[in-house]
Amino acid sequence: ILYFAAYTMTDRRWDTTEFQVVILAWDLGRQLAPLTDQIPKSLIPVGNRPILSFTLEWVEKASSKEVILVIKDSQKSDILTFISEMYKGKLAVDLVSVDDV
Fold it and tell me: Fewer beta carbons within 10 angstroms: which end of the chain, N or C?
């Protein structure tokens, strides 16, 4: 995740420059089986929230609005459902799916 801030000497404040955020969420999580047999690793709940929600929350706090999420083809429907329910209108999320290996 990239986010840059620069201190401007003219008005002595932090000036933020926004970048697109790329999140690699394509791991199948085989080490976490049987937890990942039914859901993608990035959607496993931790503290009653999917792991991915923590990263997306940080992206929101950083005032970034564009996210590119790299996922496996087999995870697309689950992650798309999660994004549309939780972040519709908050973040512009582009899903890039790669073939399952």
Answer: C
